């Protein structure tokens, strides 16, 4: 089984290509549980990346956000 690489995928309100940030393993569970709250309230949240860097995200500028595995093959948005 291939190793998973969890990533935060952000689609900005202004359009363009989505932004992808690989996540530190300690960050995944908490972000998965609270991501909907960040979007609903347009909050600002600091995300720790796999490279152990901090990225500050202003969710007021995010149209859609989700967690995905960068190594998943044959993906089609919305289908598993």
Key terms:
alpha+beta, three-stranded antiparallel beta sheet, two-stranded antiparallel ribbon, 21% helix, 36% strand, globular
Describe the structure.
By secondary structure, the protein is an alpha+beta fold. Helices cover 21% and strands 36% of the residues. The chain contains 1 helix and 5 strands; from the N terminus they run E-E-H-E-E-E. It has one helix at residues 25-41, and strands at 6-12, 19-22, 44-48, 54-58, 62-69. The strands form 2 sheets. Strands 2-1-5 form a 3-stranded antiparallel β-sheet, covered by helices on one side. Strand 1 (6-12) and strand 2 (19-22) form a beta hairpin. It starts with 5 loop residues before the first strand and ends in an 11-residue tail after the last strand.
Task: Set out the fold topology.
Elements: E1 6-12, E2 19-22, H1 25-41, E3 44-48, E4 54-58, E5 62-69
Antiparallel strand pairs: 1-2, 1-5, 3-4
Spans with pLDDT under 50 lasting ≥5 residues? none
Biggest sheet character: 3 strands, antiparallel
What is the gyration radius calculated from CA atoms?
13 Å
User: How far apart are the first and last residues' alpha carbons, in Å?
Assistant: 17 Å
Task: Offer a concise description of the structure.
By secondary structure, this protein is an alpha+beta fold. It is 21% helix and 36% strand.
């Amino acid at each position: 089984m291939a190793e998973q690489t969890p990533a935060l995928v952000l689609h900005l309100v202004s359009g363009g290509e989505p932004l992808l940030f690989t996540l530190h393993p300690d960050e995944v569970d908490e972000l998965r549980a609270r991501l909907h709250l960040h979007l609903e309230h347009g909050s600002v949240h600091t995300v720790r990346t796999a490279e152990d860097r901090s990225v500050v995200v202003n969710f007021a500028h995010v149209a859609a956000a989700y967690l995905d595995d960068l190594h998943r093959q044959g993906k089609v948005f919305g289908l598993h």
